[in-house]
């Protein structure tokens, strides 16, 4: 057996020491079993491969009879890993959370005052209807008609609106009333779709991967309309689910493209479920375009016949994620079904905050909010892109919407060129990002993680305040500086499993 100091011939004939050979092997691994960061993910409850064979079980997860872990969303897993590295909400000011899927909630320049006080009438101490308070439903319908449907014969009414306690709840309510159908989605997309498609098994998932390189530049990381039309015809799709603007890639379809998508749904009797939570986060280059937003509601012909379902709410656009007041808009017979599913799924949204939300939907106030939001977040986007460029991390397709940067790491040296390892290294620097793997909607978790089209990416959020963004970018800069100075031998291993000081024991642990 060779000794640690023995030498091996390299391809160039230059002798290599044993440690150098090990490092070369590390630089060329292609499977998740060879990576410590990937094994940490697989060890987390709910993330082991499922459904290979009927007898395959994960006994360490199935400690309660009949209970199967669904797998956590990316933000939850990353928060858990951050806590293992010392993060806590009481010490969050010491960390840079570039993983958060929420915008900063404080006042913005030229924006309206933030709602900091809520009056609670006695009646609001009772349950609200599972479809929501009628006055709020009317306010939502009025806002959509004012913004997107002026001059159209068919108008939304309160009967087209269902108030729900959060976007995920709205999505779950919709999924619970869909029958046994093929459901199309395009990756990368919002992480919760993975759990919804796994939990509501009547929806048979039909995936398509979007790519950074494509012959049609307009479809890069956007919802691919040509592919959607093809899938409907060839696979008999009954439901299409997508975010637009798109999380995590920051792209959006609008205008004629969005009109075409709605028309495809109408012409082929296919239900279109659109997550429009980032509909205000649009960044036009022409300042005269500030204040505009996008919604498929503008292209619906008949609000009670077109099978277009819109999910939105106060979480992102109004920057009130803690309120958990959102809505689903669609044909009124959909809303009656959602009322029934809400009675056993969640029981309805917070009654006092529904009442407090009504004045926030006043069209004049909304316009002031949009203008302030778009100018401020465009400034932050440009700042982040400029700093990434200086670090040599050029974003080939900059976000034109949302508050996310879909950052490709594949040009970094191994092992930093994949999202999970990059994420673990940043935790050591008190910075959180989201590995791209979580946006690969893969309900059975069976694919080798290295084969995922999202493997080489991370999602950076510019939702937090500017100070926090710079703190996180400083951490990325420190890592890249260390790589240039030390090489990669100190990366890819020695990750804490918990706060008690335990470390992972993957193949690269030292």
Automatic annotation (TrEMBL):
The family this protein is said to belong to: Belongs to the class-I pyridoxal-phosphate-dependent aminotransferase family.
KW Transferase (keyword) present: yes
Superkingdom of this protein's organism: Eukaryota
SUPFAM superfamilies membership: PLP-dependent transferases
Domain Aminotransferase class I/classII large: 95-476
Pfam entry (one): Aminotran_1_2
GO biological process: amino acid metabolic process
Alphabetized CDD domains for the sequence: AAT_like
Cofactor: pyridoxal 5'-phosphate
Entry-linked InterPro entries: Aminotransferase_I/II_large (IPR004839), AspAT/PAT-like (IPR050596), PyrdxlP-dep_Trfase (IPR015424), PyrdxlP-dep_Trfase_major (IPR015421)
Keyword annotations: Aminotransferase, Pyridoxal phosphate, Transferase
Protein's name in the database: PLP-dependent transferase
UniProt KW Transferase keyword: yes
GO terms of molecular function: pyridoxal phosphate binding; transaminase activity
